[in-house]
């Protein structure tokens, strides 16, 4: 798969690109092309190279995302989360680009949250550089980190994220990928601000819409905190 051999493919690409560039330069001299034709040919060649380089990056990312998605059924197995974590750690042992490593670390952090190992989850997540992530993955990162801080009762840090990322959280509050988590974060925030009436209202609305087997423990804990 491309994502397994990304570095090798990139090396081959650059060797071929540099070799062909040198050949192209020699060809333009041999055929005595006009400066305008040389410039046009070079621009076309550079555009093709840039396009292929971007394609490698996105295809690697796409194939890895497919691999991660294919592992999700493991989570439904008895004690499957340990095997899932092992699979993600195995993927991390392979050399990848920074963007793919960050995606894997976010996934690993989420898996540790599933085991309620929030200190481990925080440590892995703090290794990620959020500003280098795609926009939606930045929101995923900050939402996960706020959730971990709330679980660790580090409310000051969690609320800083909630305020700083408020606009993006509101924007993504209907995104199927994030809506459940963001709804839980609003409840945590209300509780940390000692506004239990608001927390109960949010909890009632959110539990009807989002509570299921995978997050039942979160809602039960939030209910106890609202009492």
Structural class of the secondary structure composition?
mainly alpha
Which stretches are poorly predicted, pLDDT < 50 over at least 5 residues? none
Order of helices and strands: HHHHHHHHHHH
Number of domains: 2
Output the radius of gyration.
24 Å
Description:
- The structure is a single chain.
- This protein is mainly α and about 230 residues long.
- The chain has 2 domains: about 1-75, no CATH class; about 130-225, no CATH class.
- Helices cover about 75% and strands about 0% of the residues.
- The chain has 11 helices and no strands.
- Helix 5 packs antiparallel against helix 6.
- The longest helix has about 35 residues, at about 35-70.
- The protein is elongated, with a radius of gyration of 24 Å.
- The mean pLDDT is about 85.
Task: Give the helix/strand layout.
Layout (H helix, E strand, L loop, with lengths): L5 H25 L4 H37 L8 H13 L5 H17 L3 H8 L9 H17 L3 H10 L1 H6 L7 H14 L3 H15 L5 H11 L1
Helix pairs in contact: 1-2, 2-4, 3-4, 4-5, 4-6, 5-6, 6-7, 6-9, 7-9, 9-10, 9-11, 10-11
Q: Which key features would you list for this structure?
A:
single chain, 227 residues, elongated
Compact description:
The protein is mainly α and 227 residues long. Helix content is 76%, strand content 0%.
């Amino acid at each position: 798969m491309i994502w397994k051999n990304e570095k090798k493919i990139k090396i081959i690409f650059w060797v071929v690109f540099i070799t062909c560039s040198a050949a192209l330069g020699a060809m333009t001299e041999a055929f005595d092309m006009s400066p305008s034709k040389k410039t046009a040919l070079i621009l076309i060649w550079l555009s093709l190279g840039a396009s292929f380089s971007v394609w490698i990056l996105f295809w690697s990312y796409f194939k890895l995302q497919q691999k991660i998605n294919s592992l999700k059924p493991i989570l439904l197995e008895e004690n499957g989360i340990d095997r899932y974590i092992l699979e993600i750690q195995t993927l991390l042992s392979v050399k990848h680009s920074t963007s793919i490593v960050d995606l894997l670390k976010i996934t690993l952090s989420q898996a540790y949250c599933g085991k309620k190992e929030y200190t481990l989850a925080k440590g892995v997540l703090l290794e990620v550089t959020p500003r280098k992530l795609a926009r939606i993955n930045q929101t995923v990162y900050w939402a996960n980190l706020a959730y971990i801080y709330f679980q660790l009762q580090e409310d000051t840090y969690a609320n800083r994220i909630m305020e700083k990322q408020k606009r993006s959280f509101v924007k993504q509050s209907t995104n199927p990928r994030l809506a459940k988590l963001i709804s839980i974060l609003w409840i945590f925030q209300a509780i940390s601000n000692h506004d239990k009436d608001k927390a109960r209202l949010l909890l009632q609305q959110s539990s009807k819409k989002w509570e299921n087997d995978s997050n039942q423990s979160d809602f039960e804990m939030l209910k106890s905190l609202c009492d």
